[in-house]
Amino acid sequence: MYSERGRVKGVSMHFYCSKVQEKYIRSCAKKSGKPLSVYLREVAVQGLYTRDSPLSPEVLAFQGELCQVAGLLEVIARKRLDEEELNALERAELKELSKLLVTMSRELKKQFL
User: Fold this and answer.
1) CA 86 to CA 84: how far, in whole Å?
2) Which residue, 65, 52, 58, is CA-closest to 100?
3) Of 35, 37, 33, 31, which Cα lies nearest the Cα of 11?
4) DSSP readout, the chain?
């Protein structure tokens, strides 16, 4: 339906994406053996499949926990770099965070070793 060369008009469209997304799109077009414009047109018409197999819920939950830990560590590091002392609540959170990291590292060892 949209593949007939005679029906394709010379209309230019622009969109924004990150460098990583650009490389991904270009590599997908290259794998399909089609020019980038043809690949993008087909993907827009048919829909884009980002992954063959989505991540498991366990992996997504673990990723969320890691992001939470990273956020907490960033706050603590910022305070320490500003030479502020941690209050009792922050010290308690740091201890809990330490326990959480130990637990997470043990789970990783169990799964991958």
Assistant:
1) 7
2) 65
3) 37
4) ----GGG-----------HHHHHHHHHHHHHHTS-HHHHHHHHHHH-----SSPPPHHHHHHHHHHHHHHHHHHHHHHHHHTTPPP-HHHHHHHHHHHHHHHHHHHHHHHHH-
CA dist., res. 62 & res. 99, Å (int): 15
Question: Do 45 and 2 meet the contact criterion of CB atoms below 8 Å apart?
Answer: yes
- Which residue, 107, 109, 111, 100, is CA-closest to 68? 100
| Residue 5 identity (one-letter amino acid) | R
**pTM exceeding the 0.90 threshold for the entire prediction:** no
The pLDDT tens digits of the residues spanning 58-97 come to 777 877 888 887 787 787 777 777 877 778 887 788 788 8
Q: Packing angle between helix 57-81 and helix 88-112, nearest 10 degrees?
A: 140
CB atoms within 10 A of CB 15: 7
As a whole number of angstroms, the distance between CA 57 and CA 69 comes to: 18
